[in-house]
Write a structure and sequence with these properties.
The chain has 236 residues and is an alpha/beta fold. It is 36% helix and 17% strand. It has helices at 27-41, 62-65, 69-93, 115-123, 141-151, 185-190, 198-206, 221-226, and strands at residues 7-12, 46-51, 98-102, 111-112, 127-131, 156-161, 182-183, 211-215, 233-235. Strands 4-3-5-2-1-6-8-9-7 form a nine-stranded mixed β-sheet, with helices on both faces. The model has no long low-confidence stretch (mean pLDDT 93).
Length: 236
């Protein structure tokens, strides 16, 4: 089995780590993700990962929390580092060499983000997890994923979600919604489809970086995407 992509950036939401729980990290989900990622690294694919922090903290609702947006965003960044550490532990338990790099300095738990070092890790077959978003408030982890993917010259962004692609409408609310197999960046904008936030999406569009949205929770789906099977929706 030959991979279609040699270097990928996998974008995971923090919520996906909750599994059946209401918050926090479900160890079964961690284990499942680690096994799926290992299958891909066994093919020789270089894997970088950006993970959100929404299962621990979401910094958006200033009106409810009384915490200003910038402060809340920094708290969210720390949540992504916690998730990164958990995923690193799960991957290493599966025998996958992993490095966690943080955009906010915290030497005891993660390397600082250094682009050249990250690329060297990837070349040596290590999985690299990028924590703490971009290191700046007002930017989402989607934007961090797009930025890091461009910086490390990834072939594609794989956005692992709970749905199996991009639909004409929300499939959970509209039973007539149909899934796109491929769609252009222009069509996504015209139809106001929610793939990523606009900053992240525009970065990918300007740098001709394709995005595949797929269901990460279905067994072997990541492997199928990487080997070029028609899984999910391709945006290009």
């Amino acid at each position: 089995m030959l991979p279609k992509y040699s270097r990928i950036l996998l974008k995971l939401s923090g919520e996906s780590l909750m599994g059946t729980r209401n918050y926090g990290i479900d160890s079964k989900m961690l284990e499942q993700y680690a096994k799926e990622i290992k299958m891909v690294t066994n093919l020789g694919v270089q894997v970088a990962i950006v993970i959100g922090g929404g299962n621990i903290y979401r910094g958006m609702n200033e009106a409810e929390t009384g915490i200003e947006r910038a402060q809340g965003d920094y708290m969210g960044m720390l949540a992504t580092v916690i998730n990164g550490m958990a995923l690193q532990a799960a991957l290493e338990k599966e025998g996958v060499n992993t490095r966690l790099q943080s955009a906010i300095k915290m030497e005891q738990v993660a390397e600082p983000y250094i682009r050249r070092r990250a690329m060297r890790h990837l070349e040596k077959g290590r999985v690299v997890i990028f924590g703490a978003g971009t290191g700046n408030p007002y930017f989402t982890t989607d934007t961090a994923g797009s930025l890091r993917a461009i910086e490390i010259k990834a072939d594609v962004i794989l956005k692992g979600t709970r749905v199996d692609g991009i639909y004409t409408a929300d499939p959970e609310k509209d039973p007539t919604a149909t899934r796109y197999e491929t769609i252009s960046f222009k069509e996504v904008i015209q139809n106001n489809l929610k793939v990523m936030d606009m900053t992240a999406f525009t970065l990918c569009q300007e740098n001709n970086l394709p995005i595949i949205v797929f269901d990460m929770n279905k067994s072997r789906n990541l492997l199928n995407v990487v080997t070029g099977n028609a899984v999910g929706t391709l945006v290009q």
